Hints:
The complex is a heterodimer. By secondary structure, chain A is mostly beta strands. Helices cover 0% and strands 54% of the residues of chain A. Chain B contains no helices and 11 strands. In chain B, the strands form 2 sheets. In chain B, strands 2, 4, 5, 6, 9, 10 and 11 form a 7-stranded mixed sheet that branches. Chain B has a 4-stranded antiparallel sheet with strand order 1-3-8-7, with no helix packed on it. The interface between A and B is medium-sized, with 27 and 27 residues.
Amino acid sequence: xxxxxxxxxxxxxxxxxxxxxxxxxxxxxxxxxxxxxxxxxxxxxxxxxxxxxxxxxxxxxxxxxxxxxxxxxxxxxxxxxxxxxxxxxxxxxxxxxxxxxxxxxxxxxxx
Amino acid sequence: xxxxxxxxxxxxxxxxxxxxxxxxxxxxxxxxxxxxxxxxxxxxxxxxxxxxxxxxxxxxxxxxxxxxxxxxxxxxxxxxxxxxxxxxxxxxxxxxxxxxxxxxxxxxxxxxxx
Lengths: 111, 114
């Protein structure tokens, strides 16, 4: 079945450093969505990319969707302690309503 | 506007007991999902429902059953709980697959099977 892997599984950075998480799907995705889950919370939607090669920015966050629509990345510039949490990618394949999530990357930021 | 409501928030079961996790959404969404979250495993899809009256298996359906009672409600049942089902369970809903819309999550149910 479809698998969506993310690397790294865990990253610890000093505040002000950059951070990147990578998402790789075993199958072509119709779209890619990114979610953030704060410790003890539930996943919250951040953004969606639909087009091959698409790049979107949200303040310090930059999201990319690969040309083959099988991979994506999230880059955070100058991390802050408020960025702490687990970041998930997710996507639909084909016409099914099945929304598959990646394994997640847990980000820890210290002063 | 409550969004997605899950009950209960916490539950402890003995091995072999049964229980139903309830989920309701008030956003008139068509699609609903049940995920389980375990450390290092991400969010794994148990079952989903694309519309009222339909359900489909996800990645890890064994040991679970679901019911899409109406458009608002999607319940998850454990017939005979096992320690391997200890996890955090999230229900989610999305407006429409064709619209590639975002998923909204409930607060989660923390289930422990002893």
